[in-house]
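Title: Prediction job returns without error message
Component: structure pipeline
Severity: low
Priority: P3
Assignee: unassigned

Description:
Job completed but the reporter wants confirmation the result is attached to the right record. Sequence as submitted:
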Amino acid sequence: MNKKMYKSNIINENFKIKKAILLLNKLPNKFCIIVDNNNCFLGTLTDGDIRRGLLKNYTIEDKISKFYNSSSFTLKKKCPYSEIEYLMNLKKLNFIPQINKLNKIVNIHVKNYAKEIKKLPNIMLIMAGGKGKRLRPLTKKIPKPLLPVNGRPIIEKIILLAKKQGISKFIVSINYLGKMIKNYLGDGKKLGVKIEYLEEKKPLGTAGSLFLLKNIDTPFVVSNADIISNIDYSSMIQYHKKFKSFVTIGSINMSDKNLYGTIIFKNKKVLRIEEKKENRYFINAGIYILDPSVKNFIKGNEYHDMTDLIEKLISKKKNVNLFPIHEKWFDYGVKSSH
């Protein structure tokens, strides 16, 4: 990789992490090299570093300096490519920066990747059976998943974004105005994917239709039918496997700030005033990875919401983890999103 190719991967430590996220989404090789104001090498930044930072309650408004890996592996002398390739495989690295005695970057060695999209064997289940009551009157005659966003129905956008990530098999759970969804999507051939359907005889909630699943023996993705995100499903699935999760919940890091001083008092006596305290927390993004045996925890043909199911699994000591999402994410299940 020559200098012209890696210049766009280099970013200053003082920029906010949201700038790095935008950059990573554009770069074909998903990494950044972090430098100081003198262009001296400080470390590297990958998607995994960003998610780990978010788990520490940092936000996208924080500086890159809080997120990057300062102990990343580097080369300090020229090596034949065969040796570099060996090191990459040995240390499971996708790239290695090469620096000189002045700590300046002289080269970046990157693994060769095939340009084709890596196909994922995992199925995506889209929960599209709801009535979309929060969007009335828009959903009186049209099911929420078919409402258009920039000219395409929400559910079509969900499928096409997942297809870009390598998912080719989909199951759509339908109930309210389900025939319209089925008639529009068909078997998925026009979108270049395969689509099957779970037909709920009555509303089963955001998790009840899981009981109807058959012949699934690998972790699968579940998405609400009103969520559009360019989340990296491959990374989320790897994360799920790495931590041996039973359920992995896609989560968005949020923050809100009290614009006024909060008075802390006891028996009318003021103890102190806390100024403009910021609260940080994660919200459920409506995207999950589930173990196929999850259906064993659901009674057949009964209403179940995903949140209730997850609480039940936690009480059963099942391993439930959150996966921080820093990618674009939109909830079209409320009118304010339109």
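Comment from assignee: result matches the submitted record. The CA atoms of residues 212 and 312 lie 19 Å apart.
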